[in-house]
Amino acid sequence: MRSVYRLLKPMLPVTLVLTGLWIAFIIAAPQTFLDKYIYISFMTSIPFIAIAAAGITLVVIAGEMDMSFASNMAMSGFAFAVITRWSGSPALGLAAALAMGACIGLINGLTITGTGAPSIVVTIGFDFFWRGSVMLLSNGLAISLASIRTSPTVQCFTGRIGGLIPAQTVWMLGVSIFFAVILHRTVLGDGIRFIGDNKEAARMMGLPVRRTRIGVFVLAGITAAFSGVLSCMELGNWWPTQGEGYLLLVFASVFLGGTSVYGGRGTLWGSLAGAMVIGMIEAGLVSAGLSGFWTRFVHGLVLVSSVVFYALASERKGKRSRL
Q1: C-beta atoms surrounding 250 within 10 Å
Q2: How many C-beta atoms surround the C-beta of residue 19 within 10 A?
Q3: Looking at the chain, which runs of residues are DSSP E strands?
Q4: Could you tell me the residue ranges of all domains in the chain?
Q5: What top-level class would CATH report for the domain 27-322?
Q6: Which of 6, 91, 102, 316 is found 20 to 30 A from 260 (Cα to Cα)?
């Protein structure tokens, strides 16, 4: 019972924020938030944020940062679009995109562990590199994928279940559950948390620190690629700026969900609930009568506030444990 409480306790703050925000928006804009179509809209758009956030959650828990996942979405999406147009097979395009995402994550991990350079610096550099590469390869031109909208593969990933529920919602839940099992029920998950908490102690204990650090970047690369492909399938288009704007949204989701910026702690439910909060904010603000210009302001405020809140909570917990 106590172990269940310890598992659920970190999820409580973001769950309360999500519930409180939802109730506030229902009161402020009942005509919107009591209508089913706003939730269908959320189920269409939030999975792109939440799936990318799942991979980034493991990276941050391991004590690292990946600032290149947004350009990974564009590069992997480009691979999907090109291979799909060439072969006529979205399934083959998806396989190529996931392989591209895994390779980008592998390059990130090998560079960081091989050079000892801070992950935030390395991945910022790769963010520019991959974004520039995709612009050069595409000549800055979008690629239409409208012809594959009725493909069985596309319908499987972004169709409407029962004619109503977007399929990407099911995939979002599946990815979140899969990563939660990895984090909380496997030796790899234990190693990720241990390495994020104290890398040197983990190395002295004989844990495969380098291999685990590379592994979380590969997983983050795959989820970024998957999110990029789902976005292409949903919109029937690939564009060179794909993924831009997701950096703030994904990290806000992760940190609002309680993942420690210092590493070692975090939950997939927290990141999923954080993505729901972030996805709900814009629609809620506009429905409540505020200008859309408030959206970025509130997103930034949420990101800073969540990081400060959890940092202070962690500091107080540390003081109590020393006493």
Answers
A1: 32
A2: 11
A3: 143-144, 160-161, 165-166, 237-238
A4: 27-322
A5: mainly alpha
A6: 102
